[in-house]
Amino acid sequence: MGKVITAIEPQKKDRKRVSIYLDGEFSFGLSGILAACLKIGQELSNEKIGQLLHEDQFEKATQKALHFISYRPRSILEVRKNLITKEIPSTVIENVIERLENNYLLNDEVFAKEWINDRNDFHPRSRLALRMELKEKGIPEEIIESALENLDEDGLAYKAAKKYSNRLKKLELQLFRKKLSSFLARKGFAYSIIYPVVDKIWNEIQDESNQGELNFNKDNSWTQQHT
Alpha helices of the chain — where are they, by DSSP H? Predict the structure, then answer.
């Protein structure tokens, strides 16, 4: 013998959910989408109630996952860990992940490429550093290898060093080399890459300085001749 739905009322705190009353008493909350198939006077078996509660838990977990990935791309492991902290059953979590993957909202290959592109654009670092970051995100080794296949470490080291070197321009050669080399080492670049890049940027700075002095002397000479 089942129980009869005696009321379906919108919840005050969340208008997307409703409260289900069975035999005159509050029984459980349900998403409005799932409740759309219910009506007052309908009889629900224990099996049907269990099914509705499971589907509701799945929908709530899906919404939590969608909220989590709305801020930035996430790896599968990140989503799984986030849902675990919310005490969602493992079977529900795996079903949510499968749903997101099937809807192209969760993809470790896409995540790895976007992660690397973002790092390359704003925070260049070495192949080793990127590999470690992606491993921490739970990305499989074969996906990491593919994503890093065409990485230009020399170019990235130069890009990172060029930006940082602006604050080192007034230093003497020895201190300049030490500070810039240490900076690149912290980014994970090998010294076989670091040394040529540091020398190249030092030479560029000297060329710029010499050119600036040359232009100043020319301007100053012109001024003296015409005063």
Answer: 32-35, 46-69, 76-85, 90-102, 108-122, 127-136, 141-147, 153-164, 173-186, 191-225
